[in-house]
Amino acid sequence: MRDRGRGGRERVPVVVQARSGRSGLARVLWVGAETVVTCGVLILLLVVHQLWWTNQQARAEAGEQVAALEREWEISPPGGGGLPSRDGSPSVPPSSSSSGASPSVSASASAVPPPSDGGASAPRPSSAPGRTSSGEAFAVLRIPRIGLTVPVARGISKSKVLDKGYVGHYPGTASPGRAGNVALAGHRNTHGEPFRYVNRLRKGDEITLRTREGTYTYVVDQILPVTSPRDTGVIQPVPRSIVKPSYGYSEAGSYLTLTTCTPEFTSRYRLIVWATLRR
């Protein structure tokens, strides 16, 4: 029965439908959008931290270490009585294990960074002076072609060496200026990325290694653009790729090996640069 109001007019009931369904959906969409934006911001901050901030920190620390080393060498030069280095300054007398080629490198020392175990279990270099320990800088590497000046430290530990923006010296390989193979590793990207542009090196480019004992100049001779991370042959005393045997050497000598990841922002393969000591 229809209700009659004042004046005898009929009242038509009005039904108001609830909007709870639409409101709930809107809230869900809003929360989802906020979550996506928050995740995006966090990812962006992570990328900025990895690609920019770690580089700033590592480069600053590496630069301070280079200055400290060279200041120390100026104040406390090496003592006399040793063999002359390539630039004529005195050097420490060689030990019996450093008079010839360096010992073979154990396969447990991975061919290139980043090492899975930090490199702590790899054998110590018997041909190297004993006054530096793992993670301690002992040399300065300079590559004019790419404008690089960076400290070199014992070992290839990520936390103690590579992530600090340093270049790492593979355990068991020769010391600068000695017979054998001075094998070095460095990050291609992030944490100072000292070896980012080593792909720009060309045959004939100079690379210098300065230590307390002297400055040694190497000349780029060969470049292996791509090889396996397990290609340990590239850091042997007489370096030769076991993956691509056409790259490398067959005679004993004084070599320098630079190793890094390739392509950029990956660790799938390794890039190798070889240089020989200038006589």
How would you explain this protein's 3D organization?
This protein has a single domain, classed as Sortase (Sortase, Chain: A, Beta Barrel), CATH 2.40.260. The protein has 1 helix and 10 strands; from the N terminus they run ββαββββββββ. The chain has an 8-stranded mixed β-barrel. The protein has a two-stranded antiparallel sheet with strand order 1-2. Strand 7 and strand 8 form a beta hairpin. It is elongated and about 120 Å long.
Low-confidence stretches: 80-111, 113-130
- How do the strands of the widest beta sheet line up side by side? 3-4-5-6-9-10-8-7
Strand content: 15-25%
Distance between the termini: 116 Å
Largest sheet: 8 strands, mixed, barrel
Q: Percent range for helical residues?
A: 10-25%
CATH topology: Sortase, Chain: A
List the total number of helices: 1
CATH level-4 homologous superfamily: Sortase
Instruction: Work out the radius of gyration.
Output: 30 Å
| Strand segment count | 10
Overall CATH architecture: Beta Barrel
> Mind telling me the CATH class?
Mainly Beta
Q: What structural class is derived from the secondary structure elements? A: alpha+beta
Order of helices and strands: EEHEEEEEEEE
